[in-house]
Write a structure and sequence with these properties.
The complex is a heterodimer of chains A (about 200) and B (about 600).
Chain A (H helix, E strand, L loop, with lengths): L20 H6 L12 E4 L4 E4 L2 H11 L3 E5 L2 H10 L22 E5 L7 H10 L5 E5 H6 L20 E3 L6 H16 L7
Parallel strand pairs in A: 3-4, 4-5, 5-6
Antiparallel strand pairs in A: 1-2
Helix pairs in contact in A: 2-6, 3-6
Chain B lengths: L27 H14 L4 E3 L6 E4 L4 H10 L7 E9 L7 E9 L4 E9 L4 E3 L8 H12 L2 E3 L57 E6 L11 E7 L2 E8 L7 H6 L7 H5 L6 H16 L5 H29 L3 H22 L8 E2 L2 E2 L7 H24 L2 H7 L7 H7 L4 H4 L7 H4 L20 H25 L18 H6 L1 H13 L6 E9 L2 E9 L7 E5 L2 H6 L1 H5 L4 H11 L3 H5 L1
Parallel strand pairs in B: 2-5, 6-7
Antiparallel strand pairs in B: 1-2, 3-4, 4-5, 8-9, 9-10, 11-12, 13-14, 14-15
Helix pairs in contact in B: 6-7, 7-8, 7-14, 7-19, 8-9, 9-14
Classes of the chains: A alpha/beta (about 200), B alpha+beta (about 600).
């Protein structure tokens, strides 16, 4: 899997001592993730917050994932449970389900991928614009599961790169939710960089 | 601090294991007598005795004529093709069996025909008699390599184009894969329906072929339809399946009988428990067992809960396809409660694998009935409100009435079962026709509707949920029968853990059962239950060893999706989308 840590470049603005998370809040500042990079400067008129562009962009990306459910089997039903009222993934900003790969940045492969549909999955993945992330939901997408058989892809990493694997057959909605939160953290830490 | 308790030996006095003995079904004598009667009416049938259905061998060349005679005979009227599948016995001179199973609505009886076929021999097609056998024959060709003479479109159906060999043959390695590259995706040119063939010159439009799926929001993930459009009208459609063919039948042959249960869960994953019931009861039928009353009661209750859940998913997603998203959010709320009930029993949510051959994995929690009552109390409100929201809605009615129509004759001829058949006015329900789990002791009705369109299917599903609630209320009122949830037979049920740890005899039974599995007697049997979208049947052949020799699951979706092309021809794409959702095609069961 092609993950690479982004090198942290020095800010062009001279650093002052960083502000601890609590202090900023007291001053009425908005709180952004990536406290280490953040600094507050008093440039005369008011209080400014500077950060790196990457941090802001990753913060935004991680909090508004647009999933494309590539749901083929049982896991798709649990995906439906996750987006519906009881579990409600919109609490984490990932409720904008798009069925067009051109409008999505998170591919959730929910269900068994068999040899016959493998080229389709590859094509869908290729059509998604960068940056794109992949969650392999459930045992089948991860490893073929208990279908060690003549027509089943033994894990979608045969075809496309995967960022998060979710165990379970099928995983519970909480499990999938946890995976989305994990992915969010991974994006916000700047650990995923492709193309 | 541990204490040692003394246990008496297992007080089991029943029959010893039945392995390598011949299976004699309980109803064999009755079926043989009936078989004699049928054989007297239709020429060309050679009776095979001692089976659970009237069974006949038929000469290869005569099969189409025999099927026609059985279909047309006024006293028999085997009008419904239930199943057609193969079996492979490599040591035999003619290695393949092609097995036809038919059903007569008139007499409420079933019949099984077998054609023995050699390696290089072919069978005349029976598409002319039963339209529904078109895809079944393609499946046999795909899985066994048996050719059908005169078949209109004999090509692979479940596996992909680059696949080599025939996977259900006994000499095929279960793990042998063949890769499909990007260029290998099947190009399909649908056949123009006969009523539109002449019109091409008169039309103002150039005909366009459009591909829908398999990755398409309305195609539910794994279905693919290629349509030819004349303007907006669909003049030809062909469906392609196999995008979720995950080798259930081959996998079953490599596992023990108990290990097959989780695979059956994943056939119709919207109503997993019903598949479990079907499979477990089939094996129990071979073993000559009946699950304890308490287990049967829980099986019935969970079946009905999962049937409601299945209908909720079908109605909810169908309404999403029609643009009514609210109902989906709304209906999934009570469904979560149903799932939570199953989770409280088994620990798993969607696919509980809660049943075992001989009973249940564990007993239900003490608050099972109380929770069930809560769900039964809350569900009617949700059903009523969703029904009120959509069923009198003008836009909704305009989109579903007269859409995706199938006539009663066609539905029967294709082999429809379940809500889709009942929406054409045929009151066939396995729970009434051949009751199991004591369904005949409950007071409930089979809802039917006229028209066979999408609206009728909605009507039937809404009413079926209410009837399921009726059954459930009666089941709750009766209370759970006391007693164990597993049969008292150490050759089927694992001894309790405390005994295994403390008694030599139990330890041996435990070891034997884990290592050698359940070993049903040699023979074959078929048993059917009413699934969420039709008759779910299992045909099992045992050779007396721990692994099933052949497991065939009858997929109710298979003939229904087969007829889909016919249903949407002459309509528009939005109609096709509205119709597809109402058919409740579950890919796991369709492709197995």
């Amino acid at each position: 899997m092609a993950t690479q840590k982004i090198e942290r470049a020095d800010s062009i603005i001279p650093r002052k001592t960083g502000v601890a998370p609590g202090e900023g809040a007291e001053k009425g500042l908005i709180t952004l993730p990536g406290e280490a990079d953040r600094e507050v400067e008093d440039l005369g008129g008011g209080t400014y917050l500077t950060t790196k562009l990457d941090s802001v962009v990753n913060w935004a990306r991680g909090n508004s994932l647009w999933p494309l459910p590539f749901g083929t089997a049982c896991c798709a039903i649990e995906f439906m449970s996750m987006v519906s009222s009881h579990y409600d993934i919109s609490r984490f900003g990932a409720e904008t389900v798009r069925f067009s790969p051109r409008q999505a940045d998170l591919l959730i492969v929910a269900g068994t991928i068999v040899d016959k549909i493998a080229p389709v999955l590859k094509k869908i993945y290729d059509q998604m614009p960068e940056p794109k992330y992949v969650i392999a939901m459930g045992a089948c997408a991860t490893s073929g599961g208990f279908y060690r058989a003549y027509h089943v892809v033994q894990g979608i990493d045969e075809i496309i790169p995967v960022d998060i694997w979710v165990p379970g057959c099928p995983p519970t909605p909480d499990g999938l939710m946890y995976a989305i939160l994990k992915l969010r953290d991974k994006i916000q830490r700047g650990e995923i960089k492709r193309a | 601090m541990s204490t040692l308790t003394k246990y008496s030996p297992i007080p089991y006095t029943g029959p010893t294991p039945t392995n390598r003995q011949t299976y004699v079904p309980a109803e064999a004598a009755k079926m043989d007598a009936r078989g004699v009667e049928i054989a007297g009416k239709v020429p060309g049938l050679t009776q095979e005795t001692g089976e659970d259905l009237p069974t006949f061998a038929v000469e290869r060349g005569q099969i189409a004529d025999v099927l026609r005679a059985l279909h047309d005979h006024p006293e028999l009227r085997f009008t419904m093709p239930l199943d057609l599948f193969g079996a492979d016995y490599p040591n035999r001179e003619r290695r393949f069996d092609v097995v036809y199973q038919l059903y007569s609505l008139q007499n409420n009886e079933r019949v099984r025909l077998k054609v023995r076929v050699g390696e290089d021999e072919s069978v005349p097609t029976s598409v002319g008699v039963y339209q529904g056998f078109d895809w079944y024959e393609r499946e046999i060709f795909d899985m066994y390599g048996i050719r059908f003479d005169g078949h209109p479109n004999l090509r692979r159906i479940l596996t992909h184009e680059n696949f080599q060999g025939h996977p259900l043959r006994k000499d095929y390695d279960p793990a042998q894969r063949w890769l499909l590259t990007d260029g290998g995706i099947t190009r399909i040119q649908p056949k123009i329906a006969p009523e539109f063939v002449q019109e091409e010159e008169e039309s103002d439009f150039e005909r366009v072929t459009l591909n829908l799926g398999p990755s398409h929001p309305a195609m539910h993930g794994t279905l693919r339809v290629v349509v030819t459009l004349d303007g907006e009208t669909i003049v030809g459609a062909e469906q392609e399946i196999g995008y979720l063919h995950r080798c259930f039948e081959k996998m079953s042959e490599t596992h023990t009988y108990q290990q097959v249960i989780p695979y059956t869960d994943r056939l119709n994953y919207c109503s997993a428990v019903i598949n479990n019931v079907g499979y477990c009861m089939t094996v129990e039928k071979m073993l000559g067992l009946t699950a304890p009353e308490r287990a049967q009661h829980v099986r019935l209750m969970l079946s009905e809960f999962y049937r409601i859940s299945d209908h909720i998913i079908c109605i909810g997603t169908n309404l999403v396809d029609l643009g009514a998203l609210t109902n989906f959010w709304y209906l999934f709320q009570p469904r979560e409660e149903i799932i939570a009930l199953a989770e409280s029993c088994s620990g798993a949510r969607l696919l509980p694998s809660y049943l075992r051959i001989g009973g249940l994995a564990v007993d239900v929690p003490t608050d099972f009935l109380a929770n069930a009552q809560k769900i039964v109390n809350m569900l009617p409100k949700f059903i009523d409100e969703v029904e009120a929201l959509v069923m009198k809605n003008r836009i909704f009615r305009d989109r579903v009435e007269g859409v995706g129509v199938i006539s009663q004759e066609d539905a029967i001829n294709f082999g429809f079962t379940g809500p889709c058949l009942r929406a054409t006015g045929v009151p066939f329900d396995v729970r009434k026709a051949s009751p199991y789990l004591g369904y005949d002791t409950y007071d409930w009705d089979v809802p039917i509707a006229d028209g066979g369109d999408t609206y009728a299917r909605f009507l039937v599903r809404f009413e079926e949920m209410r009837q399921s609630l009726r059954i459930l209320q009666q089941a709750i009122d009766r209370g759970l029968p006391p007693g164990p949830v597993m049969v008292d037979n150490p050759y089927v049920a694992l001894p309790p853990k405390e005994k295994v740890y403390n008694e030599m005899e139990s330890l041996i039974y435990h070891f034997k059962l884990i290592m050698h599995g359940i070993q049903p007697p040699v023979g074959e049997t078929y048993f059917q239950v009413e699934g969420g979208n039709g008759e779910v049947g299992f045909y099992i052949v045992s050779d007396g060893t721990k692994n099933p020799y052949r497991v065939r699951a009858r997929p109710p979706c298979f003939p229904i999706f087969e007829a889909y092309g016919k249903m949407i021809t002459g309509q528009t794409i939005p109609d096709a989308i509205a119709a597809l959702g109402s058919l409740n095609i579950i890919a796991g069961e369709l492709d197995r």
